[in-house]
Amino acid sequence: MFPLVVDLRNRRVVVIGAGRVSAQKVSQLLAAGAHVTVITQEVLVPVSSEIQSLVLRPYEYGDLEGAFLAVSATGKKEVDDRIVLEAGERNILLNVVDDAARSNFFFTAVHRDGDVVVSVSTEGASPALAQWVRDTVATALPKNLATVAQQLRAERHALRSSGQSTENLTWMARIEELISDGDALTMPVKK
């Protein structure tokens, strides 16, 4: 597996199923800015009002057309088989809930602090373990990472705008300075 951060803003994502696990996946996808369509025969838990559309019927071949990725949370092997087939034919990234062998991507346990994202995966082996690692790491992180990331973005932009490269700079001292001293957020980068 290759860990990757993907921009889902304004991308079509199809989720088949509307149970508890599906709702968790929908929530994560919406937080990432995806345009989510939920297809389900039966709504088992409330569906977010932020989804693009709710289609109340069984999955049909063709439902994945135009999707960037899909999630099958039906719990029905025969339906999952058809979804896996269509996703494969259309080269769509697919997560089959609780079936790592038929998934080509996994949801990770995520901690966000502004632009700083910590993502933990067990490649489908144990979502609970991934959540435990995420929570353990999150409690150890400084509380001002979002502000530090914003400041570093601004400093890198200012350097590039003035024609300087940021590639040969050593940023660790500046990061330590920003993390340890909130007043340092207005200081220029040191070369």
Structural write-up:
The protein starts with 11 loop residues before the first strand and ends in an 11-residue tail after the last helix. It folds into 3 domains: 12-107, NAD(P)-binding Rossmann-like Domain (Rossmann fold); 108-141; 145-186. It is built from 5 helices and 7 strands, in the order βαβββαβββααα. By secondary structure, it is an alpha/beta fold. Strands 3-2-1-4-5 form a 5-stranded parallel beta sheet, sandwiched between helices. The longest helix has 17 residues, at 145-161.
CATH architectural designation of the largest domain: 3-Layer(aba) Sandwich
Query: Helical segment tally?
Result: 5
Q: What class do helices, strands and sheet pairing give?
A: alpha/beta
**Radius of gyration using CA atoms only:** 20 Å
Rounded to the nearest angstrom, the distance between the terminal CA atoms is 37 Å
Shape descriptor: elongated
User: What is the CATH class name of the largest domain?
Assistant: Alpha Beta
Major sheet characteristics: 5 strands, parallel
Helix content range of the residues, please?
25-40%
Taking strands numbered 1, 2, ... along the chain, how are they ordered across the largest sheet? 3-2-1-4-5
Total domain modules: 3
H and E order: EHEEEHEEEHHH
Low-confidence stretches: 183-187
